[in-house]
Inverse folding.
């Protein structure tokens, strides 16, 4: 243990359901505890989303519940990190798996996050958390064959619907090591042999590298992030204006065939609800825009986005 407390590393496990994440997490815990990764006095803390969120909670059907559950897990992790670094005396909203006494007696605390994390935006939030506290961060992507995942899923205790697995398989965004924030990432074939020396060396290298070089947040980066937040807010506002214009066009079309005022009002409520949901889906990455950076500098961009969004209303 260091005088200033233990070092901290966030290890992100990602992949579709039934890709072997839980198996990998359990094996990784053992490797960290017994020193196989050439790191001493390590305290691994596993946070499996399956223990907190029902796998069948659908974002589209229960967006508020889905978001609330995920936010609670994120808050628990931040509270635990804050408690270790800032010696916060509060014991509220911590994971049951976390033992503060053991953590404080360790040289390194590794928080293993076990979830699908199929969108980059989901993972980037945790990277930013690591940067906020100047801790370490790395990722392991459990790559699974869809056919094998569907078969293995039927053998699990908590079976996930095939449609959920297929949806995530079709939408997953693998790590890109060319992105600076994802440079400490490793793609792994599901259920790989842990006795494979080359495999163990790869895991050791990724974890050691991330621990050796924790993420540092500079003043320049902070200013850039604040500017990006403003840009994102402006983009969402522009998208909302486009959605409102689409709703207006839809309502004008509806008026041509609907004369009942009450029915027309109900149709308007449906379109309004869809507009709000689409904005939320864009914010959390459920809907990916047709081009990465929206500047709205020309009408062509606006028209392209309008045609793209028309399908959702």
């Amino acid at each position: 243990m260091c005088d200033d407390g233990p070092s901290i590393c966030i290890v992100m496990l990602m992949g579709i359901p039934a890709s072997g994440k839980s198996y990998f997490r359990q094996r990784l815990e053992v490797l960290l505890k017994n020193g196989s990764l050439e790191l001493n006095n390590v305290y691994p803390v596993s946070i499996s989303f399956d223990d907190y969120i029902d796998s069948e909670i659908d974002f589209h059907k229960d967006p508020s519940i889905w978001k609330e559950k995920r936010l609670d897990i994120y808050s628990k992790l931040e509270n635990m990190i804050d408690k270790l670094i800032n010696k916060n005396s509060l014991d509220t909203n911590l994971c049951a798996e976390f033992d503060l006494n053991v953590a404080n007696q360790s040289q390194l605390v590794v928080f293993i996050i076990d979830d699908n994390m199929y969108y980059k935006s989901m993972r980037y939030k945790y990277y930013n958390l690591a940067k906020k506290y100047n801790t370490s961060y790395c990722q392991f992507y459990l790559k699974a064959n869809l056919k094998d995942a569907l078969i293995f899923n039927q053998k699990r205790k908590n079976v996930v619907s095939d449609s959920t697995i297929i949806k995530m398989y079709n939408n997953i965004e693998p790590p890109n090591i060319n992105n600076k924030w994802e440079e400490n990432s490793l793609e792994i074939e599901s259920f790989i042999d842990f006795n494979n020396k080359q495999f163990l060396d790869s895991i050791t290298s990724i974890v050691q590298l991330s621990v050796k070089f924790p993420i540092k947040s500079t003043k320049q980066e902070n200013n850039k992030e604040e500017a990006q937040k403003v840009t994102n807010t402006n983009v969402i506002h522009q998208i909302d204006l486009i959605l409102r214009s689409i709703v207006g066009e839809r309502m004008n079309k509806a008026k041509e065939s609907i004369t009942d005022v009450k029915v027309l009002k109900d149709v308007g409520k449906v379109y309004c609800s869809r507009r709000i949901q689409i904005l939320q889906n864009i914010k959390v990455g459920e809907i990916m825009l047709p081009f990465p950076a929206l500047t709205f500098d020309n009408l062509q961009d606006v028209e392209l986005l309008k045609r793209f969004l028309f399908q959702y209303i």
